[in-house]
């Protein structure tokens, strides 16, 4: 059914940064019209769902540009540890116990959380990624998926799994990228192979890059260059490349990223929680690097709440540089919407504009924490939380509204997740 949102405050995120008051008509999954007062014909009145938006803010759906949905069942499993200990001594051993079915329900759990907090698309890297793809198909959210790659005896099998993902799941809602985990888990030869395959399959690459001092120091010891320079030399930057974290990048690294159109995904909460430091986001933006925002996984964040991530992202940069006017609310919101779409080479989303996909979030503007509302964008970035999300719409389909998810059974999901929790408690 088509949708008409009436009398809403519309944050467009367009090039002019317009905030409008008016209606949004959605037809066949696209934004057909944005205007002050859209009148429906008698015929249309019978087949269009009208949402009264007088007390609602309509904005582009949030895009979580880096996470690992299969890790959602590891929320609070291994907290307050440095990255390498967290990853190699806790997370990797626990992951060995996860079955395909567990990752399916873990992905559903992550998607449910994201839909309830206004996310309409996410970028993901994990194993058994076909299970995450099935969860995406079931729920109606959008995703860019990658099978995590690393160098060991199963390297070729993992590459084959990526190709199968491309063949079996590529669609209007799912894009598949190659996903080399990092320079410290992938050989140089694998990085080169991934670069060649990404070009052959006309797709992109996502990678964890310069996340920690250990990673950078190890790369210099082994290759006598930074992770950014190594990836560039291997050819990873000759296709679409999404680099998560980029905490320890110097001016030369940033210059390379800007020149090669590499997008950075800023993950402030995960970086803070794992004690990895602060990405030089302001320097990257000044140099022309496209920057998006991601939560990372619930195992390291510990949530997938992009509304919170925007808030932290802005405050962290302001505090680090001691400048209150950098990374303003408008910039942050664009990083969480249109910049993420640009990062993945995805057109027609991230902006509320006629002809674009109807990927829309509606926020309750009259909740106490959203009042008064002198500046709707500021309220979204600095004041909102998931309780303010009234509806999440993807391609014109209402996936969540007024407390209810429409494409999954919440009771069954809770039961399955608790069963997985019991198993991991007893077996790890």
UniProtKB/TrEMBL annotation:
GO terms for molecular function: 5'-methylthioadenosine deaminase activity; metal ion binding; S-adenosylhomocysteine deaminase activity. InterPro entries: Amidohydro-rel, Deaminase_MtaD/DadD, Metal-dep_hydrolase_composite, Metal_Hydrolase, MTA/SAH_deaminase. Its cofactor is Zn(2+). It comes from the Bacteria. Zn(2+) binds at residues 66, 68, 208, 296. Binds 1 zinc ion per subunit. Keywords: Hydrolase, Metal-binding, Zinc. CDD domains: ATZ_TRZ_like. Its EC number is 3.5.4.28, 3.5.4.31. Residues 57-398 form the Amidohydrolase-related domain. Substrate binds at residues 95, 147, 181, 211, 296. It holds the Pfam family Amidohydro_1. It catalyses: S-adenosyl-L-homocysteine + H2O + H(+) = S-inosyl-L-homocysteine + NH4(+); S-methyl-5'-thioadenosine + H2O + H(+) = S-methyl-5'-thioinosine + NH4(+). Belongs to the metallo-dependent hydrolases superfamily. MTA/SAH deaminase family. Catalyzes the deamination of 5-methylthioadenosine and S-adenosyl-L-homocysteine into 5-methylthioinosine and S-inosyl-L-homocysteine, respectively. Is also able to deaminate adenosine. PANTHER family: AMIDOHYDROLASE-RELATED DOMAIN-CONTAINING PROTEIN (PTHR43794:SF11), AMINOHYDROLASE SSNA-RELATED (PTHR43794). This is 5-methylthioadenosine/S-adenosylhomocysteine deaminase.
